[in-house]
Each structure stands twice: as C-alpha cells, then as structure tokens.
C-alpha cells in the first residue's frame, strides 16, 4: 500500500512539474478558442445554424462543411463570428476546397480579420472598404497579368476601395502564386499573427500528410486591431466554382510572461516543487528496497531479463521451423497453380484433336463400296484400252489398201488423245483447288492410308466422266474399224 501511495504522489508531482516546464521563458502559450472555430462532423445545430457563427448569402452549412457558393454564376456567401476575438496574438488554420469543371475558375474565396463583421459586398462576398486583414485566394485573372490563381495578403484601413479589375494590387502587401483549384486533398492555410509579424503557410493538398506546409509570405511591422471578427467569404462571377470550407481552427498565442502570470508560479515555488520531487523519489527508492527485502521470492533477478543459451537455441529452432513451414506452404501453392495450368493445357489439346478428327470424318463423303465399284470400272476401261493398243499394233500388218482409212482412224485417235489430256488436266486442276481450299480452312489430312480420305467426290465424278468418254471413243473406233474391214473384203 505504501508503494502505491508513493507512486500516486510521484504522478501528481510529475503533473505539476510539467506545468512548471511549460512556463520556461521563450515558449509562447497556445490555447484553442472554440467560440471562434468550427469543424465537422456535427458542424451545425438541428436548426441549421453554426454555433457562435453567423452565415448568409448563398452559404449552405452542412454536417461536415460550409459551401459558401455553389458552382453557379454571380453568387456570394459568407460566415462571420458572432463575438470579437479578445486576444492580441492568434493563429488560424483553414481547410478549404475550390473545385470546378472548367479550366478557369472564378472568382475566389477570402479569409478575414476585421474590426467589424463584414456584410455582403463585391470584394469576394464582403464589402470592398473593410478595415483589417484579408487573405484572398483569387482564381480569375482580371488584370490579364497571367498571375492567377494567386494567394495574396490585403490590408485596408477602411478608406481605400478594393479594385476588382486590378485584382487589388493597390492593397496587396504580399502573396504567392499557387494553383489551389481541384486538388486531391483539402488546401490548408495557416495564418499566424504574433508580435506584429504576419506569416502565411500553405498546404497545397497534394499529400494527406498534415505537416506538409510551405511558406507563402512573411510580413513584419503589421498592426491589426486587438478585438476583431474572423470571417470567410466567397464569390462567383461569369465563371463559377464550388467554394467549400471544411474547418476554421483558431488558437490564441500568449507570450511567456503572461503564461507565468496565469499559472501563478514563481521561481521559488518551482524550486520548492523540484525539491519535493527529489524527496519523494528518494522515498520511493527506499520503499522499493524494503519490498525486495521483505519478499525475496518475488524479486526478479537481473539475469532473468536475459535470454539463456538453451532458450536462444529453442527460439532459433522454432523460427527455422516456421520459415520451413512457410516455404513448404508457398511451394504447395505453386504446385497447385502448375497443376491447374497443366490440366487446362491438356483440355485444350484434347479438344483441338477431337475437332480435327471430327473435321476429317465430316469430309468422308464416299464409302468403301463405292470406291471398289470405281476401281472395277477403271480396270474394265483399262482392259478395253489395252485391246485398242493391240488392234493398233496389228494394224501395221495390213495391206497398203487401207491407208486412207487408217489415216482417218489415226486422226480420230489423235482427237481422242487430246480430249483425254484435256480431261486429265481438268481433273488435276480440281484436285489442286480442293487441296488449296482445304489449306485455307485449316483442315489437315490424316496420315497416309490405303483409302484416300482427303479426295472429295468431285474428283471421282470427273474421273468417271473421262473414262466414259474414252469408252465411247473406243466403241466408235471399233465400229468404224469393223466397217472398214467389211468394205475392204
């Protein structure tokens, strides 16, 4: 119990010590001001109002943002704090999105800190004779200088008029050329006013990291009112963009001397707390030694914090087994993938082979019996042609009186031979065309076999016709030969 009480006391002292460290000279105090901030979700109340803020014009607040202007021409919207900001130094961070479908946008959005709350007007939704600070995000190049989109810092004493056609060059004190339209992430502006120095940083929204800010401008010897109103407004002209404000976070900055006054800690008090912290630390160490003496079995030995040789070997074996198990699992997965690929390849090859077999079977339009019939007819025709050859050889022993008739017969035989050669050429042409067509259709012939399976029926029809013509010629020749013999004898 004593040790628990000691730990509690030490924790309390550490908390006080942190407060004392926060008062170290040279560090300013930062405090969040909720009455001058808004952020989603639950940005609006049930009645659609923003807590501690007024809005008007075309501004449409929702649960997570305020749409100052929709992408419609000639619209103005604004939002202003209801109360003034009581602190002299401050820092704000505004997250916004400017999106539009066109290559050029208009007009822009502005962030304000003025002595009086703004009213709807021509200067980006505010009056053009404000008194205070305006940070403008100008989308459209009205002065035709080719320097937009541009982020500019404007200061006005309430007597000068913002010249919209010149993009306010008379009031401009600094700025930077940045394209803030259609960024993938919200564009963030951090504006700090501390000890009469105004600094503006810009996060261009190209990365989601919140710390990617870059310096835009830094102005010294800037004097702003202590009690002012924060606001944000936007406007569209002939061109239009959606101007959305996602958050407006405000912090007050207090110099270190004021921080010491708020905490009420003097140097003597800080020294006293430091001494008490050392005393309690010594007591805690003493109670720890007493606890070790009273409970030696519960005291953890220093060597227990280190790994023994046996434990190290067991751990290495276990890690090696895990690595082998992981490698085997990976190999098993790869083998499974290869098996699937081999099965797929086998299926494709089998399917293609079956398709080729089907194509060959479809081309077999003549059966074996028909082929045998054709072969018999060819044999008969061959025998007849042999007889013609024998008769021609016998014709050489005839007497010279049948020379005239032999000349006529020879002429007819010559005509018959020409007709046969012509038909043979036709048959060869038909066979060649069929093979070419078969090649175009990608149908391959099976291996050689006794029965020709790749020759279509047209080939046999032409062959039969040719042989019939030869037979008719043979019969005519035989009749003519017999008539000549009878006439001679």
In what range is the share of β-strand residues? 15-25%
H/E element order:
HEEEEEEEEEEEEEEEEHHHHHH
Treating each run of at least 4 consecutive H or I residues as one helix, how many helices? 7
What structural class results from the helix and strand content?
alpha+beta
Number of strands: 16
Rg value = 54 Å
Globular, elongated, flat, extended or rod-shaped: what is the shape? elongated
Helix percent reads 40-55%
| Main sheet overview | 9 strands, antiparallel
How far is the N terminus from the C terminus? 159 Å
**Uncertain runs:** 1-25, 258-262, 398-405, 441-454
Mean pLDDT: 77
Membrane topology: Single-pass type I membrane protein
Pfam families: Lectin_leg-like
GO biological process, one term: endoplasmic reticulum to Golgi vesicle-mediated transport
Protein name: L-type lectin-like domain-containing protein
